[in-house]
Amino acid sequence: MDPKESVRVILQVEEQEYAGLMAKMPVLLQKGFMVKVQTGRSLGHFFRRQLNLTPEYIAHRISTVFLDGKPVDDIDAALLRDRSTLALSGAMPGLVGAVMRRGSFYASFRDTISYRDEGEKGSSGPRRDEGMIRLKLFNLVMKDLGPGFLETGIYLEADSFTGFLANRQDTIPQICRTAQVNGTAVEPGDLMGHPLFKIQPWVRLAIERNK
Amino acid sequence: MDTILRIDMGAQKGPVFKKEPAGDYAGKGGRDMTSSIVSKEVPPQCHPLGEENKLVIAPGLLSGSAAAMSGRISVGCKSPLTGGIKESNAGGQAAQVLARLGYAAIVIEGQPANGDLYKIFIDKDGVKIEADNSLKMLGNYDTVEKLKKDYGDKVAIMSIGPAGEMKMGAASIAVTDMEMRPTRHCGRGGTGAVLGSKGVKAIILDDAGMGARKPKDPEKFKAANKAWVEGLKKHSVTGEALPAYGTNVLTNIINESGGFPTYNFKVGQFDGASKISGESEAALEIERGGLATHGCHRGCVIQCSGIFNDKDGNYLTKQPEYETVWAHGANCGIDDLDTIAMLDRMDDDFGLDTIEMGATIAIAMDAGLAEFGDGEAAIKLLKEVGEGTPLGRILGNGAAVTARAYGLERAPVVKGQAMPAYDPRAIKGIGVTYATSTMGADHTAGYAIATNILKVGGDVDPLKTEGQVELSRNLQVATAAIDATGMCLFIAFAILDQPETFQALLDLLNSFYGLELTADDVTALGKSILKNEREFNKGAGFTAVHDRLPRYFHNEPIAPHNVTFEIKDEELDKLYNW
After folding, report:
1. Residue among B241, B277, B475 minimizing CB distance to A95
2. B55, B147, B59: which is closest to B96 by C-alpha?
């Protein structure tokens, strides 16, 4: 995807309505959104350098990691590629929840699906460059990191965004004070029908709260 | 808790009861009690719906005490679904009330000669067994409402719905929760059909005038309970994830792993997963004025349940669990939480196992009775079960029977019981448990409980394929032991990570009973339970051939990872070699 093909949307909300708006966001954060990354770098590098997460947070909070659908055990060996899908979660219940955890004692239960870097033979891994990955945030990690991403801005498919608005036609206009599309003020109630969403395939969504 | 109540429903002049000391069964609780009695007293070749089968109800070793999380009640019998031994347990209030009344077990035997339907009332003053045909074919919700008028709203009720009265293989026994709703179920294996075959509609338990059971060493018990609760609250699974999102927090994870059985186990990922996830469910519940955090019994500090209201903000059902959301959701191609919640409500009301019914409806869809994803059709099929139509009677007898009736090979069952919400091809270790568990395909039989502490036969190398068989064995042993205590199995996560929390559990048991149990003793307990169960199943005609997954799991790869179940039969057969 080319970020230049995205419509820039800002939802502006008063401080007292912020929590209410964030409560509507899980569906977008779970389905995933695109973020710019440095490809060829490890997941550990992404967590520490790009997301600025502390070692304690990484060790204790991001207990379950999937890269392209495969459970990851070693975040410093797993490498990001352009268009990878990365899913982050806290520790999960159940035997299978324990099985999926990073470095799980029960990892053998899922060894045929565990992440192994399968780059081209003889290559030194994916080239270091700029790329985009789909990032999915689940449960406690969604609660912790979701607000930061939404304040910085996330890239969504335009039809995902309009679908999200369609299901919340009664509530979003009540919660959001104003909205902007490509820098121009728009009534929140008029967002869904905005013509640009039919032209551009991507939306860059950010939330601004007025403190 | 040293008395066993025996109720003979088939006595010549009508049902009679007697109380006797626990005797040989002294010191047993929960699954240990039910499996001991069933394996000793029920002829393994009896008909599960005949007079020789017995239904055993047993609280756990710590039930009725002040120990947090001790509210599980076990029900055991020969299963009409699997033909083998069954232990099925549930939360709700019944365990604590029955234990405070001093009963280590209720054993229901025989069969009434007439067609009357009975209710059994137990309080501190005695036992009353009365025919009450006005309860016939009532759903569990109406049954409880009716009984509340006679017995008040401080009792605990175990009941069957129409499915149990019609003796269907998927019939459950409902247990009322703290709000006296019949939302907790001894779901698996058709225990409701066995209670129905005994002519019993409801058991009403009233502990008015009784206090909590007292520990032998109150000071040590209090300290252990404090450490226990602290351990549970500080762990991120039991202290945060489960209270916030419930068990359905697993939907996104299992879907991401490619092990989320979809469209009758055809693929391992569901496009609609995020719509029915625990995160989405919690957000919807809160939006509608329900609850995303709620306990099923007093003394629960994990509070993984919730309250699901309909679009108008009126109570519909308790928060559907992960297994229910999967079974009625992805497995049937349904991505609407309101439809899933309605199906959950109907299961609770008719008295049906949600896992078995979700698997069955998916098979019905595969057979062409409905389209995958058609929520209205799923609701109609479930209505037929509740009404006992000819089609409903097929469906109500579970996935294996339905597949046979429609000539389908692809029935995801082991020992006649439908698989739960994890595909064994993507997660092979769970497949080992499905295949070898004495209970049939069962995800709770082999839970993660401190297996680095509880060793069976030495350390396991978890990286080896053979290690999976040994791990599954360890887990099944440990789970069987936990099932004897009355503790909710979700304590497992805190125990797994925090040795001091496992020690707190041992301290609770030791200070309550004046014992000095160690981890080895817990292991020995688990092994003895499994040994009893294996012996029973052997007597019932089970052999190694029954400890297998259906063959198509070996041959049919599952997307997206395109893997099959590769564990060899010879490896599975080693599981019980200790």
Report:
1. B475
2. B59
Query: Do the Cβ atoms of A93 and B430 come within 8 Å?
Result: no
B471 chain-A contacts, CB cut-off 8 A: 106, 108-109
Average pLDDT over residues B184-201: 98
Residue contacts between A and B (CB atoms, under 8 Å): 163
pLDDT per residue over B328-377, tens digit each?
A: 999 999 999 999 999 999 999 999 999 999 999 999 999 999 999 999 99
b/e code B136-171 from CB counts within 10 Å (16+ = b): ebbbbbebbebbbeebeeebbbbbbbbbbbbbbbbb
Q: Express each pLDDT in B128-146 by its tens digit.
A: 999 999 999 999 999 999 9
**Mean pLDDT, rounded, of chain B:** 92
Nearest to A80 by CA among A114, A29, A131: A131
> How close A135 comes to chain B (CA, Å)?
12
Give the distance from residue B343's alpha carbon to the nearest chain A alpha carbon, in angstroms.
23
Q: What is the pLDDT of residue A20?
A: 84
pLDDT at A75 over 50: yes
Average pLDDT over residues B524-540: 93
B431, two tokens: 């497949």
d(CA B103, CA B110): 20
Give the pair of three-digit tokens for residue B544: 């190694």
Two tokens, residue A119:
């780059």
The nearest alpha carbon in chain B to A61 belongs to B236
Picking from B418, B257, B347, the residue whose alpha carbon sits closest to that of residue A136 is B257
Spell out which residues of chain A touch residue B278, defining contact as CB-CB under 8 Å.
139
Q: Do A136 and B252 touch (CB under 8 A)?
A: yes
Contact indicator for B431, B553 with CB cutoff of 8 Å? yes
Residue A140 Cα, gap to closest chain B Cα (Å): 7
- The residue type found at B575 is L
CA-CA distances (angstroms) from residue A166 to A26, A160, B91? Answer: 15, 10, 40
Q: Do A90 and B464 touch (CB under 8 A)?
A: no
Contacts of B570 (CB under 8 A, 6+ apart): none
Do residues B402 and B170 make contact, with C-beta atoms less than 8 angstroms apart? Answer: no
The residue written with tokens 């936990």 in the block is: B482
SS3 (DSSP) at B15: coil
Least confident of A141-145, A187-191, B303-307: A187-191
Instruction: Give the closest-approach CA distance of B120 to chain A in angstroms.
Output: 36
What ipTM describes this predicted complex? 0.89
Is pLDDT at B458 greater than 60 in this prediction? no
Across B249-275, b (16+ Cβ under 10 Å) vs e yields bbbbbbbbbbbbbbbbbbbbbbebbbb
Q: Tens of pLDDT along B392-422?
A: 999 999 999 999 999 999 999 999 999 999 9
Q: State both tokens at B50.
A: 């005949």
